[in-house]
User: Fold this.
Amino acid sequence: MSTLFMMSTTQFHIVLGLILFSLGVFGFLARRSGIVALMCLELMLNGINLCLVSFSQYHGNPDGSAMILCIVLVAAAEAAIALSLLVKIFRKLGTVSLDDLRALKG
Assistant:
């Protein structure tokens, strides 16, 4: 029988969170687009949130769930600011490629 079916729900959520975080790290380091980098950053944060919820539920302590609210609020503010910066960069350079940001040096 596969080990995937022998895992508890907590273990499955932790493994899924680690997979999401790993995909986010790989995408962040491999891609050169600003939009994709932001999406991968959000993917990493969601993987961390999933692990926090799993550990919080496993231990019966609601502190992890409360911390997730703070992480989601910071992620929303980060996404709004980063997207506005990318729109400004797109209007100036015509692209959101992170390699082309070297042209902005003063």
Summary: The mean pLDDT is 87. The two ends are 61 Å apart (CA to CA). The domain at 9-98 is CATH 1.10.287.3510 (Helix Hairpins).
